[in-house]
Amino acid sequence: MSSFTPTRKNRRALIWDKAATGSFYALGAAVLLFIFWLLYTILSKGLPGINLQFLTKLPEEIDVGGGIGPVLFNSFYILILSLIISIPIGLGAGIYMAEYAPKNKFTEGLRICVETLSSVPSIVFGMLGLAIFAEYFDIGLTILGGAVSLAFLNLPTLARVTEEAVRAVPIELRNASYALGTTKFQTIRTVILPVSLHAIVTGICLVAGRAFGESAVIILTAGLSTSGEMWDFNLFSPGETLAVHLWYVHSEAIVEDAKQIADKSAAVLVFVVLFLNLLFRVPLWFNNRKLKK
Amino acid sequence: MSTPVHDLPAQKGTLLQTPVQQSSRWKRGRGSRVRFTNGLFKYYFLFSILALCLVLALVIFFIGKTAILTFKDISLAQFFLSFDWTPEEGKFGAASFIVNTISLTALTLLFAVPISIGMAILIAEIAPKWLKSFIRPILDLLVGIPSVVYGYLGLTVLIPIIRTLSGENLGDGLLAASLVLTIMILPTVSRISDDAISAVPKKYREAAYALGSTRLQVIMKVVLPAAARGIAAAIILGMTRAIGETMAVVMVIGNTAQLATSLFSPTSVLTSNIVMQISNVEFDSTWNYALHMMAFLLLVISFGLIMIIRLISRKRGDVA
């Protein structure tokens, strides 16, 4: 070390390195501050005015004091339906691409399919839902149409995150498992899935959050109205969700307190998304603890 | 699998043949079941990916078959080259929407890509562990914030700010939309680039450090090139979201069918025009066909982008 005398080039490299480190930190701080400001703005405007009544009451068209009961329910209902449809297929597709797909033209074609599908704008899925359910089957704007279209939207993202997660599993683990004489599926079930679960669940989080707040698809497939009842499990009734309601209240509603309702709806949306993230992470903590043992 | 191990001590020395026979019979019964599930799930996984492709086929078929009807009534040149969109008078020129979409996306990427990649580098390479595990979940949370909420914030917070800063009296337009989009795609792009950078094997870095590189040199010359594929994928996803984003854009762009002449003029892009008009048109009208054609165009644009980026990432992959 002592015999090393830095040249001018060395010194310049060190200075650049320091400067770059500093500016990366500055950027990070700025972005984080901005994010906190954003969350604070949304939540502080809306959260204080929220009470149980607001969350469960029916929306009003003319009078002040309407709630968001049915639309909130529809949001969860459509989200869960769409996840039930899309998770098995999305995970399966991701596992196929990571574990089974041979290196050939066919796989290449599949990959282009997945990438193209993931780049399809949500509004196009909305139009697809409109074409299939409203035009072809002629059942109008329904919860079922919304859920299926939303599932279409989720599929490519789910497949992509699953594939990445499964690919990230070290080859040694696979080999160790095969050396014990397991079949491919046993290895996937007992080794690969538990190891990649963290990344997969993070992916499902992202998808669920996106699906919960998705509005372009829902406007076109589930409509701008509700059946006007709470707890309406009928798949064929119109299913305006909270995200759509926020847009509707803001752009088309004529009630006096539209601004307050919009503020509160935005806060509820964000709150639920944050909550969903936590909810999905709880099983992970247990799983991590089990792995550590 | 644990049964023969437990059986062994009990029967040790008395009858060695019996457990062996038992275990082989047991193996045959279980083995065929294991093979069966193995095969079954192989086909299930294949079925899943084919289902995905079927969805894509459905999209292309349903949008395409309606879109193609556009050209029964208006000419190809009119749709793509005319800037005049007055559906009431039968004029369906979509050029202004196309140009606006392209400029909006370009502007968004201009803001978003440097910031997101910087964030990704910070998280993956520079920040200490506690900071990493602090920033990552926060970015994840941000991805989930619904687009309508961003649009609503843009409308109630950003546009008044733009109005005061620029002195314009409306504030709606490309700048507002691209700023909202930047915030929206920032977490997506940075988190996925972060994953790509973190996936670069540690030995690459160690080799570079052993040659006496500074951290910046390692990042710029080793880590980023090695993660280029993943970062490209991240930017694709970001672009995808920016091009296809509807609700946030609808709320801040002004929704006027004209070419954006400045950053502040109210205008309209492909997605926002579709969502504003499609609920009000008849299924069998040229207007509806033209809107489907615009959706089909969105499909084609995103497909083209993906092919371009695939080419780029493959070339880089060869060099590395």
From TrEMBL, chain A:
A Gene Ontology cellular component where this protein is annotated is: plasma membrane
Location within or outside the cell: Cell membrane
Name the Gene Ontology biological process terms. phosphate ion transmembrane transport
Could you tell me the keywords of this UniProt record? Cell membrane, Membrane, Transmembrane, Transmembrane helix, Transport
Kindly give the Pfam families that the UniProt entry links to this protein: BPD_transp_1 (PF00528)
What start and end residues bound the annotated signal peptide?
none
Q: Which residues cross the membrane?
A: 21-43, 76-98, 110-133, 139-159, 191-212, 266-286
Question: Which molecular function term from Gene Ontology is one that the record holds?
Answer: phosphate transmembrane transporter activity
Membrane topology term reads: Multi-pass membrane protein
Q: Which residues form the ABC transmembrane type-1 domain?
A: 72-280
Under the heading NCBIfam families, the entry gives: 3a0107s02c
The record's section on PANTHER family has:
ABC TRANSPORTER PERMEASE PROTEIN YQGI-RELATED, PHOSPHATE TRANSPORT SYSTEM PERMEASE PROTEIN PSTA-RELATED
Identification of the protein by name: Phosphate transport system permease protein PstA
Q: Which organism is this protein's natural source?
A: Paenibacillus zeisoli
- List the lineage, top down: Bacteria, Bacillati, Bacillota, Bacilli, Bacillales
Q: Which gene encodes it?
A: pstA
From TrEMBL, chain B:
One family from Pfam that matches here is BPD_transp_1
Keywords recorded for this protein, A-Z:
Cell membrane, Membrane, Phosphate transport, Transmembrane, Transmembrane helix, Transport
User: Is the keyword Transport assigned to this protein?
Assistant: yes
Please give the Gene Ontology molecular function terms for this protein. phosphate transmembrane transporter activity
Specify the protein's topology with respect to the membrane: Multi-pass membrane protein
**Transmembrane annotation, as ranges:** 43-63, 97-126, 138-162, 174-193, 222-243, 289-312
Gene Ontology cellular-component terms for this entry are: plasma membrane
Which biological process terms from the Gene Ontology are attached to this UniProt entry? phosphate ion transport
Protein family:
Belongs to the binding-protein-dependent transport system permease family. CysTW subfamily.
The record, for PANTHER family, names:
PHOSPHATE TRANSPORT SYSTEM PERMEASE PROTEIN PST, PHOSPHATE TRANSPORT SYSTEM PERMEASE PROTEIN PSTC
Q: What is this protein called?
A: Phosphate transport system permease protein
- The source organism is Paenibacillus zeisoli
